Amino acid sequence: AKTRKGNQYKIFEHKLHGKNDYILIFESKLRHAIKENTLELHYQPKIDAKTEKLIGMEALLRWRDPELGQIPPSEFIPFAEECGLIHDIGEWVLRNTALQIKEWEQQSDFNVRVAVNISPLHFKKVDFVERLVKIMDETKVRPEHLEIELTEMSMMDYNEELINKINELKKLGFTIAIDDFGTGYSSLGYLKEFPIDTLKIDRTFIVNINQGESGIAMVAAIISLAHALKLKVVAEGVETDVELEILKRYNCEYVQGYYYSKPLNATEFTSKFQNEF
Ligand code: C2E
Ligand code: CA
Ligand code: CA
Ligand code: CA
C-alpha cells in the first residue's frame, strides 16, 4: 500500500511503532477482520424532530483488533480507500446490514430504512449496482429498506454514467442521502441533476448553531435550499436541546446525534427501539 504523508494513521503507526512494515501489518489485520467477520456494525437512530419517533438509522462500522484495540473508522476507512480494501469493506457493510434488516423483519413489523455509508471509490465501480442487487437478492431484503449515504465528494466531476447510476438505484427503490453536506468543495449543480432524497447537514454546522447569528444563518440557508429542492433534511451530531429547538424552528425534519442516542450495537438498538420499528 502507498503510505500517506503526515500523521494520518497515527494510532496504528504509534502502536505498531518499531515494527517494520507497519503498513503491511495493518493491511493484513484489516483483511483478516473482513474475512473472519470481526468487524461490527453499530446503529444510530434518526428521529423525527416534531414527533420524536424513530424514522430510520445509520449503520456505522466498528473494528476492534486484539492487539491494537478499537480503531476509529476515520482512520481505517481512508486507509482502506488507499490500499483497495474499501470494496470488500463496502460489500461487507451492505451484506451485514441486509442480514440485520432481515433479522429485524423476522422479529417485528419492520418498516424503517437503514442507511449505509458508501465510499466514492466503491460507488464509482462500474458493477456497484449489479453487486448491490445481488446482495439484496441473496439476503431477500427489499431496496425500500436501504438508504445509500454518499458524500459530496462522490458527486464531484459528475458525468452521465454517475447520473444513470443514481437514477437506476432510485428506480429500484433505494433512497439517496448526501452526507456531510456543506463541507465538500463541489459546486451545487449536482443537486438538481440527481434524484436525491435527503441532505444531511454536517455536524460542524450544528456545533456552531448557538455561536451567534451567523451559525444559525448557515443552517437556515441549508434547510431552505433543501426544501426549495424538495429534499428532506437530517441534522447530524445534535447533542443539546438548544440545538434541537433551533432546528425545529427552521423546520428541519430529522435529527441524529448523542442527544437521542449514541450508535448502539444491534442488541442494544433492538431493545431500545424495537417498539418503534
Ligand atoms: P459520518 O457518516 O458523518 O457519521 C457520523 C459520525 O458522527 C459517526 O462517527 C457518529 O458516531 C458520530 N456522531 C453521531 N452523533 C454524534 C454527536 O452527537 N456528537 C459527536 N461528536 N459525534 C456524533 P463514526 O462512527 O466514528 O464514523 C466516522 C466516519 O467514518 C463516518 O462519518 C463515515 O464517514 C465513516 N464511516 C463509518 N462507518 C462507515 C462505513 O461503514 N463505510 C464507510 N465508507 N465509511 C464509514
Ligand atoms: Ca454518514
Ligand atoms: Ca455525516
Ligand atoms: Ca462526517
Brief overview, please?
It comes from Ureibacillus yapensis. By secondary structure, the protein is an alpha/beta fold.
Strands, count: 10
β-strand percent reads 15-25%
Helix/strand order: HHEEEHHEHHEHEHEHHEHEEH
Which kinds of small molecule does this entry bind, naming each only once? Answer: ligand C2E, calcium ion
Taking Cα atoms only, what radius of gyration do you get, to the nearest Å? 19 Å
- What's the helical proportion of residues? 40-55%
Ends distance? 42 Å
Structure description:
The protein is an alpha/beta fold and 277 residues long. Helices cover 45% and strands 20% of the residues. It has twelve helices and ten strands. The chain has helices at 10-15, 22-35, 73-83, 86-107, 120-123, 128-139, 160-172, 190-193, 203-207, 213-228, 241-249, 266-273; strands spanning 39-48, 54-65, 69-71, 113-117, 146-151, 175-181, 198-201, 232-235, 254-255, 264-265. Strands 1-2-4-5-6-7-8-9 form an eight-stranded mixed β-barrel, surrounded by five helices. α4 (86-107) runs parallel beside α6 (128-139). The longest helix has 22 residues, at 86-107. The termini are far apart. The model is unreliable at 1-7 (pLDDT under 50).
